[in-house]
Amino acid sequence: MSDLEELVSDALAGDRSAFACLLERETPYAYRAALAILxxxxxxxxxxxxxxxxxxxxxxRLQRADAWAAWFRRITVRQALDxxxxxxxTRESRLIDDMWPGSTDATADNDxxxxxxxxxxxxxxxxxxxxxxxxxxxxTVPDVAATLGIPVGTAKxxxxxxxxxxRTELRDEHA
Amino acid sequence: xxxxxxxxxxxxxxxxxVDARRNPLPLGFATSIAESLxxxxxxxxxxxxxxxxxxxxxxxxxxxVAFPLSxxxxxxxxxxxxxxxxxxxxxxxxxxxxxxxxxxxHVTPGASPHALTExxxxxxxxxxxxRPGMTPVHVESGPAGEVLLPRQGFEWAHVPSDDxxxxxxxxSDGGPPLGQEGSFVVLDFFDGTIYGVLNWIS
Lengths: 175, 202
What we know:
heterodimer, A: mainly alpha, Butyryl-CoA Dehydrogenase, subunit A, domain 3, B: alpha+beta, four-stranded antiparallel β-sheet, two-stranded antiparallel sheet, 18% strand
């Protein structure tokens, strides 16, 4: 039995420390995805926490231990997108005005990162999810599609469109 | 991908990296979450009874399928045997006993010509789950105390006793690991009475 299988097995049996080890492995990546989607570290941490609770409760449904990482990532990303959809009317306009409150240091010495994140923050949450999963977490297109629950072809097309939108937003930023 | 696209996505990766480093997760974040988790079994119990409307819809669907199925098959306990067709004399009376219960079979002494074969159990599971095209990825039989009890999360299967022999069938649509769908079905080893169906998605 592999280390991962043992941890999943122990967590299934109710061992919280084993579950903590599983979380330790994946929360950094899940958090990065949530942060990219939500553009708020506080909300991203909340989402990861909710995702962890859901994962604990639904762990008996995990079919294979080696799917743990992808499974937890999917729960987190979908939770983040749900959170953004529910909050759209109350928060999206503020995000557009203020970009990503609290998430990025205004005095950042990396101007490129600031302008790029500014443009990125104006994309739709779905587009941010696609780009972050593909180019920041370095997932394959099929894995991106599986995470978001969409066909591979659709994911590919949407990623392409999202890059175009980002380029347009960057151009506007510089203009 | 055009060079221009590569350039912009590499810049995005670096920018998101900077952002993540500036806003790291607190130390011990995962451990603190794990320590605050409720017991899974009790939480599941409250979930089942805390969302009665959803549970009622699911269970009514299960009952609707399981009721006619249970009427067409005889019931017995291990060791009780009789021969001959029972197609014209339904020996099982199935009654939904509560909002989360599946039909419960009343044993008729002397009934049942033989136990269900694995193929019959799988077919009965497909019908009960209303998933005719799905393939079995796991089939196991034995006393409920040995087949179900060691596993967690099978509270939904209302088996009369731990020594009741059951078939546990896990059906899957064979899709990719993520997004794969299927159903666990627990049914009586001898007469196919459906003790519970739980749909899952991975």
